[in-house]
Design a protein that fits this description.
Strand order of the largest sheet: 6-14-13-7-12-8-11-10-9
Distance between the termini: 107 Å
Largest sheet: 9 strands, mixed
Order of helices and strands: HEEHHEEHEHHEHEHEHEEEHHEHEHEHHH
Radius of gyration: 46 Å
Number of helices: 16
Length: 565
């Protein structure tokens, strides 16, 4: 039984790895597809230039000879020399070897150029012998068919005057006479060569994409958090996308924004239940940080504080990002109504009525910043706030950028680490988590933020993943993500409130679906009751005209009786 479970777990892990690899390949195509196309076009363009634009036709003219050498004999008493030529295979082989030297001889070239009336040799001439015979073939190649033909004839006529000094007196007997070429010997075939070059460029580009997918070292799934980082995944928040409108719309990621999809809200409530169970030992202060900017820690901080406040808890949100506050930018753009509660020389506490939370912001004097990051001051204030508030969330700068997060982590009780899917290298995330583990705070786990499902993401097992499109909403240390809603998320906000009580303690997605069914059943019952009332009213309305008719008939009868009287 145990072996079967192990085998099933290994099969599931391999399936997840394949899904992750396919997701990486698809993201690589989206990110570097232009590289593959650019390489394909570049290679095809170069080959088109070489094979079509720079194409030069080549014409060939050939002539075949048999080689005979001189044989000297004495004839007659006076010793007069007589010459005869005989078959000589060795001479033919030697002539083939030394022919390039004969052609390169300036004397022969000058004679050919003078005869043709040109300044340089218009064609190149080569010789090849048939092994085991005294046959030799002369070949002239050039770009002009007539000049190539004339060059070969001129070489045949004038070579003997030069060859005599090298191999002696020879005689060439022509077997195959040269002919004026009508077509070039080479072909263009540029279409096939261009297509082959384009394919090579595309293959190189796909190789780049495959290398990108295989060598990626980021966190993509909750399994990566468990296996690579050896940490607990507290929850998963989906990437939500704002639909495109012609008019300006509210794109802030807060619970009060009606355009934020229900998938994000439901997964946020599941995250609240998970954190609430981890805080069962009475701890109140929770620090939220990340490795790098734009991983979503600020949006997570605001929405976690808001969703806990809806559970009738008194929540304090501390904006500890003293250098660049992402929370302040959200509050200012939303124009929330604020009520000042407490203020001194270092900080100010205001109540955000719409979110039902208290927000603590530090003042930006340089002297106060140096004092705020001292452990004694922070510890003293947090101890005082823990007696007044049920929960305290502290939003800090990224721990991989500045050291403020490590200092604050020494005085808070728990730490939650936000990791944006496929955004930061694993080595950097490990370094940030290790810096948190070195403190006295309890490390609750990691939140995988901005998950994308479907073929463009990392598997369909993220139920609350929106469709894949980007919208930039960024601040230096805020969340540069792309949230919004899809068509499937258009659910009435009253239905969300009806299922809130069920999803508070839900441990799985099935609880959420059951809550939706209950809300839908209640709504259907209400609609039925309304329809029944409407039918009753209609029947009553129909009955009223009949009563009127009765009255009118009675009045007519009374009038008739009066007339008779």
């Amino acid at each position: 039984m145990i072996n079967n479970n192990v085998i099933n777990n290994e099969a599931n892990d391999s399936t997840v790895e394949i899904k992750v690899l396919l997701g990486d390949i698809w993201r690589g195509v989206i990110k570097f597809g232009w590289v593959a196309l650019a390489l394909s076009v570049l290679f095809a363009g170069v080959q088109f230039y070489r094979s079509y634009v720079r194409f030069t036709p080549v014409y060939k003219v050939t002539a075949t000879f048999t080689v005979h050498t001189e044989n000297k004999v004495l004839s007659g008493e006076d010793g007069v020399k007589a010459y005869s030529f005989y078959y000589d295979r060795e001479t033919a082989d030697r002539l083939t070897t030394v022919f390039p030297h004969i052609i390169s001889n300036k004397l022969l070239q000058n004679q050919v150029c003078e005869e043709l009336g040109v300044d340089a040799m218009p064609a190149s001439v080569s010789a090849s012998g048939v092994q085991g015979t005294n046959m030799m073939t002369l070949t002239a190649t050039g770009s002009d068919p007539q000049l190539t033909y004339d060059t070969l004839l001129s070489v045949i006529d004038n070579y003997s005057s030069v060859a005599e000094y090298i191999i002696g007196r020879t005689k060439l007997v022509m077997i195959n006479e040269p002919m004026l070429p009508e077509k070039p010997s080479n072909t263009t075939a540029w279409v096939s060569s261009v297509m082959s070059a384009a394919l090579i460029g595309l293959v190189l580009g796909m190789g780049w994409i495959m290398a990108y997918a295989i060598l990626r070292k980021t966190i993509r799934t909750k399994e990566d958090i468990r296996n690579v980082l050896n940490q607990h995944c507290v929850g998963i928040l989906p990437q939500v996308v704002f639909k495109k409108y012609r008019r300006e719309i509210n794109k802030n990621i807060v619970l009060t924004n009606q355009l934020v999809g229900t998938e994000f809200l439901e997964s946020l409530r599941l995250l609240r239940g998970s954190i609430q169970s981890l805080l069962a030992d009475g701890k109140k202060s929770v620090m939220i940080t990340s490795t790098a900017p734009s991983e979503g820690k600020t949006v997570v901080s605001i929405n976690l504080a808001s969703v806990f406040a809806r559970d009738e808890k008194k929540v304090l949100l501390i904006d500890a990002d003293l250098r660049d506050s992402g929370i302040q930018k959200v509050i200012e753009t939303e124009k929330f109504e604020k009520e000042k509660i407490e203020e001194n020389e270092y900080f100010c506490i205001e109540r955000i009525k719409s979110l039902n939370i208290c927000l603590l912001t530090f003042k930006d004097e340089v002297e106060s910043i140096q004092k705020i990051i001292r452990n004694d001051f922070l510890k003293e204030k947090l101890n005082g706030f823990s007696e007044e508030y049920d929960l305290i969330f502290v939003d800090t700068p990224p721990c991989g950028v500045i050291s403020d997060a490590s200092i604050i982590a020494r005085v808070v009780e728990t730490v939650v680490y936000v990791i944006r899917q496929d955004a930061v290298l694993q080595a950097s995330i490990r370094a940030g988590i290790n810096s948190m583990l070195e403190t006295d705070a309890k490390f609750l786990g990691c939140i995988l933020n901005g998950t994308v499902g479907g073929f463009g993401g990392y598997g369909s097992y993220y139920k609350y993943a929106g469709y894949y499109r980007y919208y930039n909403y960024s601040s230096k240390y805020g969340y540069s993500s792309k949230y919004g809603y899809s068509k499937s998320s258009r659910i009435n906000r009253k239905q969300i409130d009806q299922i809130a009580d069920v999803t508070d303690n839900a441990g799985s997605v099935s609880d959420v679906s059951e809550a939706k069914k209950k809300s839908n059943d209640s709504n259907s019952e209400k609609s039925k009751s309304k329809s029944d009332k409407a039918n009753v009213n209609k029947n009553q309305d129909r009955s009223k005209p009949s009563n009127k008719n009765k009255k009118s008939s009675q009045s007519k009868k009374s009038n008739k009786s009066k007339k008779r009287r």
